[in-house]
Design brief:
The complex is a heterodimer of chains A (232) and B (329). By secondary structure, chain A is an alpha/beta fold. In chain A, a hairpin with a 2-residue loop joins β1 and β2 (14-24). Chain A has one domain: Rossmann fold (3-Layer(aba) Sandwich). Chain A contains 10 helices and 10 strands. Helices cover 36% and strands 27% of the residues of chain A. Chain B is an all-alpha fold. Classes of the chains: A alpha/beta (232), B mainly alpha (329). Chains A and B meet through α2, α3 and α6 of A and α1, α9 and α10 of B.
Amino acid sequence: MLKVDGIDTYYGLGHILHSVSLTVKRGEIVCLLGRNGAGKTTTMRSIMGLTPPRRGSILFKGEPILGVKPFRISRKGIGFVPDSREVFADLSIEENLEISERRFEGRVFWDREKAYELFPALKKICSRKAGCLSGGERQMLTIARALATNPDFLLLDEPTEGLAPLVVAMLVEKIAELRSFGLTVLLAEQNQKVALGLSDRAYIIDNGAIRWHGAVGELRENEAVRKKYLLV
Amino acid sequence: MVAPSLSLAYRARSLLRLETLAFPTAAAVLFLLPLVLPEFYVYFAALVLVTGLFATSLNLVLGYGGMYQFHHAVFYGAGAYAFALMLAKAHAPLWPAFLFAPLVSAMLGLLIGAICVRLSKLYFGMLQLSLGSLVWAVVFRWYSFTGGGDGLHEIPLPDAISTTRGAYYLTAVVVLICMVLLYRIVNSPFGKIFQAIRDNPQRSEAIGVDIRLHQLKGEVLAAFFAGIAGALYVVVEGSVVPDMMFWTASMEVMVMCLLGGWYTFLGPLFGAAVILGLRTFAGIYTDHWPLILGIILMAVILFFPEGVLGLLLRRANSKMELSTETEPE
């Protein structure tokens, strides 16, 4: 479904991603593991077109999306949940979801109501300003907002970062539930436990390059790799 | 403490009551004003309404859209000139001329907007200022058509609106309709997307919003309403001068928005009333009235940066939240 092939991404003169390649098949949950500053967020932003790579290619459903504007990538079916949990603070939860809906474009599976079904807690406070939400509520809203765009592929950038264990457990449950709706997920995570519990396959990124990839079971057993690239 | 759903329903009901009451109340007050006020104050009220509409149209793109619209007066002037020229040179009837004015402004908005929305923030503002100044220079220099620096005076207006009270009533009706339309726009999904772009353009793109197209639509809408305000200015004043589309006029209307409150719907109208009041009444006693304005502005920026109306609304909202928490079931 997604094929990233040898992308190089820069921030100004800084060379951040070095020939990063990865593939995600339809229906899979694939995680991108790495330490802080390893290049996970840049990879996500590169796929979404927010920090366009200078070299390489990205194919989504067989169609090249490198150089395509982010809003067009979103409309092709990629939902993006950024790591900073940024919501539109001046708008209510309802308005955040309302402006994200793409009802008029083709087949619609995900919409505002479906997103509320996944996160009923949001429905109860739907008229509350997003700027007044707690960290967990904000993260629910950013995921719901990405879902309201009616994606069939979701980029989740560190969804559990900085959240209380109870909230993390709830989010993990919800992300696992997404698979049952047929969503494909690329999950960037630092939290090994969460990522390995959710995913089918894993990529390890370090210093802007993919160092290892394989099935989650293999990674669990490969302590040397985990020690080398994931331990602080 | 009541259940959140009850509290929300109560708030929604309160807001609904406020909005449904606001329109007839405003209409009644505007209708009754000329019956109790002397002629000069009727003229002043009409000028406040016109300038308030002009400032509100700017606030659509500046306050709600976060676009650095540094030269909005060019659309106001374009509407005024289009209306005045249609009446004075083409001898067109009132209503076609009145419809022509905002269309000219909207077309100009489309042209300038299509060039400027490729840039963002200060670059957008500087390019917009340059292109607006270019339009002003054409108007200022084209003496045979626009009257150059002298402008156009004694525009032939129909008898019904050539009196102060007639002009006031036309202005009041049109401004009221325009304010309702602008309020609807601001609170529509279009307006909410505009606010989302202002808050975070990248996140807006990531949810599928075509930022440039949206900003261009906003620019055209703002220019359209500024054009209506421009035409109304001609109705009230009976003349048009190039100064009304000079860059200093744009700065003045920005100050009105700042004073009243960027993020409030009626703030710019309030700011327009304060500044026009200062100019008119403090101007009687001193030529240095901008000094008083400067002191007021410093106080606003230092003590309530969300503007006077912004501050009042914030206080009213927090009081309302407190009262909903104690409302009995």
